Every structure is written in C-alpha cells, then in structure tokens.
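As the work plan foresaw, the team has encoded backbone shapes as discrete tokens. One protein thus recorded appears below exactly as we store it.

:::
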Amino acid sequence: IDSTLLLSPDGNNDLIKSTGGVLYLKSNELSIQDNAGNQKLAIDTNILLDTAGIIVLDADNAGVIQLKDGGGHYGSFFTSSDSFNIQSNISDGDIIFKGNDGGSAITALTLDMSAAGKATFNAGATFGGTIDQTSPSAFITIESTSASQNSQLNITSTVGTWLIGQNSLQASTG
C-alpha cells in the first residue's frame, strides 16, 4: 500500500510536537524515505545532535560507518579482526591529524597514502621501544632535507653520545 502523510508546519515551523515532553521536532524540511530498503533522513541544513548523555553510533555490519560528501564516499570507520580501522577511500588521499597548539592551527601528522602510508610528523616523534626495519632491505636510512651543509645526527644513550656529521663520526662517553 502506497501512502503519504503530509505534515504542514504551523506558524512556528513545528511539524510534530509532543506536549508530554516525549517528542519535539522543529525543522524547515524533514523527510524519511524508503530508499530500496534503506531508511533515509534528509535535512537541507545543518544537523545538531546534542545530549547530556552519550551519542552512540551502532552499526551491526562490522561497525562500518561511512563518511560521505555529496554522496561521494571519502572515508570509513569499521572493525576487522578485533581492530579499529580508519580508512581513506580517496585514491592517494592522505589522512591528516590536525590540532591546536597554543591557539595556532597545526598539522601534527600526515599519513601519505600515495607513498604507502609514509608518516610525516610536524615536530618530531618519541618512541618507547625500538625502531624495527621490516622490509627486505637491511638498511635504515635517515635523510636530512635541510639545505644546510651542517646537518647532523645525534644518538644519545646512557653510555654516551654519537655525533654523526657530514664527514665525521665523534663519540663521547657519559
């Protein structure tokens, strides 16, 4: 049976109003449609989810939550093999972590998808363990992109410091 329910807003744009406090809906446009078996909520302006409690997104399909813009799928959150996954669906589209550092907008980390996920940290990185080489190559390469001829690498441990410069290697014990 095809049927249509048309609600006309009153002077306050109230479409549905419950005086018992259970439901209050105010909108300029709201449509819930059966779209080939999917329910769709379309709102022509911004939507605000505001609660004093917790907002829960619960998808029983590996937890897949798709992010779209104009219908184009650009990213997803999902679970796989007991892992939480963040996926960029844009070919070679980077994943960028941005933040606020003392009032200044910064890019803290960029994962370059056109380079198999190469990580670029804005201001360094700290590791709590070893840095492991997992590719077939037996080398770890540290490059400086600085135009300065005085680039150097300092390696400090509890037993001393190694200073590796352009054409030198110096060691001192602690």
